[in-house]
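Notes, p. 3: input format for complexes.
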Amino acid sequence: MKNYINGEWRDSSNKEVLNKYNPSTGELIDTFPAATKTDVDDAMDSSEDAFDSWSSLGTQARAKILYSAYNLIEEKRGELENLLTIEAGKIKREAKDEVDGVLDQLQYYAEFERKLTGDIVEGSNSKRKIFQYKVPYGIVVAITPWNFPAAMVIRKLAPALLTGNTVILKPSSDTPLMAQWIVNKFIDAGIPKGVLNLITGKGSEIGDYIVNHKKVSLVTMTGSTPIGQRIMQNASNNMAKLILELGGKAPFMVWKDADIERTLKSLVWAKYLNVGQSCIAAERLYIHEDIYDDFMKKFVNVTKRLTVGNPETSDIGPLINGGALGSMEDVVKNARESGYKIATGGNRPSLEGNYKNGYFFEPTIIEDVNQDSPLFQTEIFGPIIGTEKVSDIDELYKKANDSRYGLASYLFTEDPELMFDAAEKIKFGELYINMPGPEASQGYHTGFRLTGQGGEGSVYGINEYLKVKNVYVDYSKKPLNINTINNDVFNDL
Ligand code: NAP
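Output follows (493 residues plus NAP):
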């Protein structure tokens, strides 16, 4: 694959490439450019040149391009679903679901074409007004992760472009092909030269240079907390606005009156979706002591029935790469050393043929985890969950809120009083009551604490890409009298 800079597909300026492997088989599927500083400079120049005409084009004209991209993606959605399986290891049902999400978001943001508003505020008298325009920032750098590689790209491109910003997309090095496929659809939809540039390459090598670049006005990044913190430091050089969607450690709370089947279905979704590689994945399971044994028995049984292997036919596909697989092995090793009971899983499955070199790991449940253990304090990002018994509601809230992350949380109860009490007391950007995720386009996906700042979706999310410009106007035509100056000096002019 190639980078897309200033309206043309290009190799990196020094021709260097990186490899992309299929996570199910470990086979090489393609190479992609390792962008250089020269490539980044070219992309920035091109984005800057394109900004004035793009930002003054008008929202409806820009929305047309989003609608065209929607149609082109929908027409070839089978290709995108296949790519999600080959490049990211998605099982078939999840690949389809992600493409549905891509289309939903494109449509949602395009529909803002006639909904963006500014304000007119009364000035210091009735003939004075302050016009508050919402204007785009300029060059937006969009940095995306691999876990929902198509949806995350669209969730940034659609609002940034609709609002009149130009965008430099830097996708994860684990999913560059997906970004290329999507950029191609925007090109076919008629995106003008320079409005959208694609830069690939290792974040650890080129990321600092991109974020530090003096032409950048906004950085929107989804990824891990440590990289988000690094981006925050780098962005300060330029005072670039930040939208950071970072790690999570969702508590999944099961009260004694929960509807068990509904809860189990939601839990299997929240834990094993995308092999647990989801920012809203359930990572800490708190169960009321009265139902603990029964609930655990059922959860373990259901988990054992999930098939792991070929993503075309299984319930659980591979992890994204060898590093992620190694981390799961470390989590289980540490749990064993800490004396925890592994209720099920804990190993790499033995698979045949092509899949024996894939990055597969069994869904794993670790019992009676201590609240202070790394299992309950650091993001696992895989198909492993720890459980703990709770006996009273204050203990539940205290433990659930005891996390440096603050993205998703889940509660299952039939008691309305408890639902509203939890809505007040649970300190997370999202609380799902009696339902699984994911977040909706019309919700504001945002996290507290180390999960970052800003958010995506809803009118709040689209406004993240607009800044406010104030224009003061006096249309009274009356003589101007300023209290703080001697107005006599203006006599007889
Ligand atoms: P990651 O390792 O932090 O990478 C995210 C992106 O940052 C990648 O494109 C990466 O490029 C790039 N990057 C790395 N170093 C950089 C630097 N110095 N400057 C600029 N960019 C740099 O995260 P990931 O492994 O892809 O994704 C998993 C994480 O994302 C998890 O923590 C998950 O919770 C989080 N996540 C959060 C949300 C949310 O909405 N809150 C949603 C999805 C995922 P390379 O790939 O080239 O290294």
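The chain has two domains: 3-246+451-472, 250-440.
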